[in-house]
Amino acid sequence: MTEKTAKADEQEQVIFHPDFFKIPEDGSKPYLVGLKCRNCGQLWFPKLPICPACWSETLDESPMERVGKLYTYTIMNVPQPGVKAPLAIGYVDFPNGIRVGAQIDVLPDQMKNLRIGMDLQVGAGVIREDKNGKKTISYVFRPLAASKGGK
Amino acid sequence: MRDVYVIGVGMTNYYKKSPLSAADLGRQAVFNAVRDAGIGPKQVQSIYVGEMPGLSGSICFGQRVATTMGMGGVPMMNVESACSSGALAVNLAVKDVANGVTDISMAVGVQNISATRASGTAFSPDANDPEGVQGITMPGIYAMRAKRYMEEFGATPEDIALVAVKNRRHAMNNPRSQFHDPITVEQVVNARSISDPLTLLMSCPNTDAGAAVIVATKEKAMQLGSKPVRFLAREVTSGIFSNGFRDMTSMEITVRGAKEAYEIAGVGPEDIDMVECHDAFAINEHLYTEAMGFCGHGEGVEFIRSGGNDYGGKVVFSPRGGLLSCGHPTGCSGAAQIVEATWQLRNEAGAMQVPDCKVAMTHVTGGGIYGLDNAVCTIHILSR
Ligand SMILES: [Zn+2]
Q: Which of B78, B112, B132, B369 holds its CA 20 to 30 A away from the CA of B169?
């Protein structure tokens, strides 16, 4: 128990979550990983231990396309503790039929340019920071033009 | 199954900051309900207490409320499903009487938020939730519904504000409400932004309160001479997990729950005189007038502009002032709605009275969990 706590303190950042968000080591762009049920074919995100539709335990990783359409969004001015305001957040619909909710990484003065239906791509970003400065890295959405080269 | 009647209701004020502890809020509500029923405390044969224990940190909270009132020794259960907790407690008390397990049962809903949470913070999904970790809040989720609804159906911020203004006007007649000052559309639209397009005055405030409902068989109700208020339906359902392209302007769990409740009750929207709904945010009455079948999908804009949800319209939504003006004591709200609906059906609602109120519906959802429209939806239909 003590060992485990000590180890967590050493880490300055964690990735949420390596099972469903991949940042390739070869420098190619990060992407989300869906799970396809081998039995019934249903797609899920993020990783689940069993298929909710048929209870199959065999689900295969299915890398998702990196660009989807913004279904809806908001700019939160009263966020959770550990998250800075204003914060844009939205749901993006991907070509495989999966909807994912995440932060939209745009500067406050760019938030007015967000539009329902616009294309957004998956990137990696710091989504929160705790009191001790420990950062959580996860997937975020970014406008295509403002892409920061995939990191 | 046996018919079940309300024989006693009681509640506290809706406090911005309660002078009473959570347990004392519960005790005051129970005291008022037992007195209202005209029974002795030991006649209650089972007790259900709804509270969000994640807030108070208390275990067996119901026992802290009721045993010091001499009501121990009976089955007593603490129930939690976020904002539905108090309504869920009522559902279980009614179920005991309906199934012949008891003749008299009691439900309590209590929340003291001000003692347990910092003000100016937003309720949020669990930190381990894939959307919760991204920083999403409950206002954020409803703001996204509002944004999409405005895009699809042409609603404006002023349309959303109409609901906040109406519910405040209703609250001015409710002596227990947290707010009594009138507000205008302009004030609502220009209030501080919480989560675009929702402003502070389009969002329910944190509130402390307690409410209690005592239910019994028809025989007991007649013996006690209670003004008859009967449950036509008690409906509770849970969310259905989906990762797909859910229509966030159609409240799936409420559409399903309301349909089931109408079927059980043998009534339709045309029979309902008043509704207390989960108006945690002002967009919700657009969403719920549609989900409950008072108008078609997308027709809420016109329905609300023309006052269809107000006195003199098709159905009165939130005659007590709703969560928007009474405030939202989360674990209590579902029980408080049933207390207020009972007063309406007894024709005891004073200046709030809905004329000739025969059938009332109460509705509360709860829980932000990824993949679900809502975690839970609890509906009761009552008639005089
Ligand atoms: Zn399957």
A: B112
Domain range enclosing B368: 130-204+233-383
Predicted model pTM: 0.94
Centre of ligand 1 to C-alpha B374, Å, is 23
| CA-to-CA separations, A143 to A76, A98, A101, A120, B98, in angstroms, rounded | 18, 19, 15, 5, 57
Is residue B124 assigned to a domain?
no
Give me the amino acid identity at B78: N
- Distance of CA A20 from the midpoint of ligand 1 (Å): 18
**At B140, which CATH number?**
3.40.47.10
Question: Do B49 and B106 share a domain, yes or no?
Answer: yes
Q: Write out chain B residues lying below 8 Å of A101, CB-based.
A: 130-131, 134, 136, 370
Same domain, B171 and B285: yes
B35 falls within a domain: yes
Among residues B83, B332, B357, B377, the one annotated as catalytic is: B83
> Mind telling me how many Å the CA of A83 is from chain B's nearest CA?
7
B180 shares its domain with B214: no
> What does the alpha-carbon distance between residue B381 and residue B383 come to, in Å, rounded to a whole number?
7
Sign of the torsion formed by the C-alpha atoms of A112, A117, A123 and A124: positive
User: So what's the ipTM on this one?
Assistant: 0.94
Do B240 and B227 lie in one domain? The reply is no
In a domain, B343, yes or no: yes
B280 and B364 inside one domain = yes
Number of other CB atoms surrounding residue B45 within 10 Å: 17
User: For chain B, how many structural domains are there in total?
Assistant: 2
Q: Which residues pair with A141 in a beta bridge?
A: A104, A122
pLDDT truncated to tens, each residue of chain B (384 aa)? 999 999 999 999 999 999 999 999 999 999 999 999 999 999 999 999 999 876 667 789 999 999 999 999 999 999 999 999 999 999 999 999 999 999 999 999 999 999 887 666 677 777 678 898 999 999 999 999 999 999 999 999 999 999 999 999 999 999 999 999 999 999 999 999 999 999 999 999 999 999 999 999 999 999 999 999 999 999 999 999 999 999 999 999 999 999 999 999 999 999 999 999 999 999 999 999 999 999 999 999 999 999 999 999 999 999 999 999 999 999 999 999 999 999 999 999 999 999 999 999 999 999 888 899 999 999 999 999
Residues with Cβ within 8 Å of B295's Cβ and at least 6 positions away in sequence, in order, are B289, B302, B303, B308
| CA–CA separation, A150 and A123 (whole Å) | 6
